[in-house]
């Protein structure tokens, strides 16, 4: 019963919006707003076929590689910077400088330095999506329980065991918050990177349809991006529940107490 209730909550608003859309487009409609059935048919014709392999799959590959690189680099550098006060003070001005630069501004520069290829698109994703993971990891490492930290020093728990059993678990709630934020940023940057000098991908295809006034096809690409966003959100929530199972259980115990 609870599962059915959650499903109804999940699909309730989308179904309501589609019904409203259908009702508002019963008569003559604007050229730029296709009817739901027209869009559904266009979605099937465009994306269930060759474009799935030539545009959708390459975009997802870039997105996954960019996200993995973002998380790995963000956590590694975040742990290093958060563990040493002198390193944090040394790098803070430079981190603030680069964080203030909008990632889309780097696209033309990266096109010149790296070239118009998949590496450029992945670098664009990492350059913008890494900040939530990096900064949340730094703050998470800094906020590790000082009592536990002193205890680990007393028992001479250092190096990798300390990192594995104290630092990463203690910082994991904030790390997962950063990962969740970076996921949506990575999707946006994937689309932006493909709009510049690309010959494949979701961003390229949407712009191609828009320039050719293929309005239903353009909307179908936007729907694909929305579905990808929902899938990423569900995956990140699932992983977060698994990683933070101990943390959520601890909060429930404290709440019950």
Automatic annotation (TrEMBL):
Please list every transmembrane segment annotated in the UniProt record, as residue ranges: 7-24, 63-84, 96-116, 122-138, 185-206, 218-239
Query: What UniProt keywords apply to this chain's record, in alphabetical order?
Result: Cell membrane, Membrane, Transmembrane, Transmembrane helix, Transport
SUPFAM superfamilies referenced in this protein's UniProt entry, alphabetically:
MetI-like
InterPro entries noted in UniProt? MetI-like, MetI-like_sf
Q: Which domain of life is it from?
A: Bacteria
A GO CC term? plasma membrane
GO biological process: what's one of them?
Answer: transmembrane transport
What is this protein's name?
Answer: ABC-type nitrate/sulfonate/bicarbonate transport system permease component
Annotated compartments? Cell membrane
What topology in the membrane does the UniProt record assign? Answer: Multi-pass membrane protein
Residue intervals of the ABC transmembrane type-1 domain: 56-240
